[in-house]
Amino acid sequence: MDLNGLALFQQMEQKMHWLSARQTVLSENIANADTPYYQARDLKPFAAEMANAMPVVRTNVSHISGGNASTVPVVARDRNFIEISPDGNQVSLEDQLTKVADTGMEYQMLTNLYRKQLSMIKTALGRNGSA
Amino acid sequence: MSNDLVNSLSISSSGMKAQSLRMRVISENIANANSTGLTPGDMPYRRQVVSFENELDRATGANMVKVSEVGKDPSQFQRRFMPGHPSADADGYVMMPNVNTLIETMDMREAQRSYEANLNVIEVSRMMIMRTIDMLRA
Question: Is B130 touching A (CB cutoff 8 A)?
């Protein structure tokens, strides 16, 4: 069974993809927390990306399909930085660590949700699914 | 998919590597805080400083960090009055290294803090990877 046919699973997968991409960007920021002139970066919020990823609706079958907009997360400069240290570094460790914890928690929530949804489907399938 | 997470592990470890090199240099500085020259004209130990650099890893496209160079601190040596010292000049002054233990201690704290932050990221990334694997068991 292709779970990705279900919109919910598809969205959860996208969000998980987004979260792991964000984790990479955050770890870059933290690793470079003492690099002079390094500017902190972050991904665009997931909600904004989802809005962009909406496919164009076709009102007539002969129209060209807009196709799915790319769902590759966009990395942008983090403009909400708290302070700039004398060496021009913009990374605030506290801020970044909060984001890391946030990302981890959301990821945990998603994997739990995924398992719950899956076990519900298994329940519907019958005894052999042993939910 | 979890390639991103594995990348984040290697980025954090590059950060930890850079910080531990920094710790090594700091400990060299502190250990040599009193290393003077042997004869009157000799220069004492000169404080070393690390500078970090952002480095793009071409294989993964990740922004790693590395120590670009271990440079010398050009600031002035301290002069201390110790007429009995073998390297004392005609006026009885000895050139002491330009190491300030307080500055080194602060630097050490900063290195420790950055190291811990990187470790924290590794823990969270690891948790995320384990969670993904756990999904197979659902």
Answer: no
